[in-house]
Amino acid sequence: MKTTLLFLLLFFSSLSNAQTPINSYYGSDQTVYGILNSEIPLDQTNSGANVIWNFNQFTNVGETVDYISTPTASEITTYPKSTIIVGNVAIISYYSKESDALSITALKNADLELNYKTNNATIGTFPMNFGYSNTDTTAGTYVYGMYLGTFTGTITTTFDAYGTLNMNDTGFGSFNDNASRLKTVQTISLNYGVLTNVGTVTQTTYNYYNTTNNGSNSLILRNHTTTVNVPLLGINQTITQIEKFNTMLLGTEESEWLSNQIQIIPNPAEDILTIKSKQKINYVSISDINGRVIINSNYSESYLNISYLEKGIYFATIKTNEGLIVKKFIKR
Fold first, then answer.
1. Which three-class secondary structure state does DSSP give residue 250?
2. Which of 34, 94, 212, 297 is the most exposed place for a label (fewest CB within 10 A)?
């Protein structure tokens, strides 16, 4: 009898953890994510209950930081209904949050801008429970390099799986814990001038959230795969980005204190970049405005050779024993 009761308690406890809803689509302000490479493609085909994901082939190639802010009046005019901006060096996402429903109003990176001003892309309603699924139609305008036009499409979001996520250590410890997964698939048809259906954009996103039985959760891993196919222009490009939660930036006072402890000199810089710090520097990574990591260094020589970089804006992610700070500089 005691064994039966213990089994039932464990069963219902496990069931309760599994049914923890996902509270938010995006992560928290000033969250630091490691940009990862995977030695083999991730197997994300399994869905349902009690799935086990073993992603133990990651290597860290850089970092990015999410910042959450409120759009300006000008941005709201350009991207109607926008109430939230989530941005980093790779992509800026604009969202509309009305009650508990979240929609995408715009997506921007260095190559492509999608403005959903005709019909916002509804992701769904939060908190979101396992088994939830939502499909919405979308429409708006796009800019891709020197080309621009209109688009129509669909977006489908599904809370399709939960279970255990195992990830190897990429610098901030390994991860072996409960996870719930949200899958979002966007399929967009591009129109150019009087020509319709000249190409497609397909983006599949898997977000993994670390869920606990007290109702809290955090975005622990995200994987975006975007394919742009425009036969008329000879474009057939697929880009995959994998990002794993690393840490949080310091609070405002601590961040300001650490920022004052670190200086990039000279700035703008031409050939040699020196980081003046009152703290020991553990490593430095340099990313371009598209989020691509150009330099990874343990900063053992007390300077970085940047003579071969193209002119432009770059970001230095600097890790010390006191925390992590991101500094912008200009290469001239």
1. coil
2. 212
Q: Which residues contact 70 (CB under 8 A, 6 or more apart)?
A: 83, 84, 85
- Distance in Å from the first CA to the final CA of the chain: 76
Per-residue pLDDT reduced to its tens digit, 71-108: 999 999 999 999 999 988 778 999 999 888 999 999 99
Cα Rg of the chain, angstroms: 22
- Comparing CA positions, the residue from 71, 67, 133, 128 lying closest to residue 105 is 71
287's enclosing H/E stretch is strand 281-288
Question: How many other CB atoms sit within 10 Å of the CB of residue 180?
Answer: 26
Burial (CB < 10 A; 0-12, 13-18, 19+), residue 131, is exposed
- Largest Cα separation within the chain, whole Å, is 76
Residue 187 shares a structural domain with residue 76: yes
Alpha-carbon distance of 314 to 35, in angstroms, equals: 16
Q: In this structure, are 232 and 87 located in the same domain?
A: yes
d(CA 46, CA 92): 30
**Segments forming the whole domain that contains residue 297:** 252-331
CA-CA-CA-CA torsion sign (194, 108, 159, 25): negative
Backbone φ, ψ for residue 120 (5° rounding): -60, 155
Domain boundary among 248, 268, 287: 248
- How many structural domains compose the chain? 2
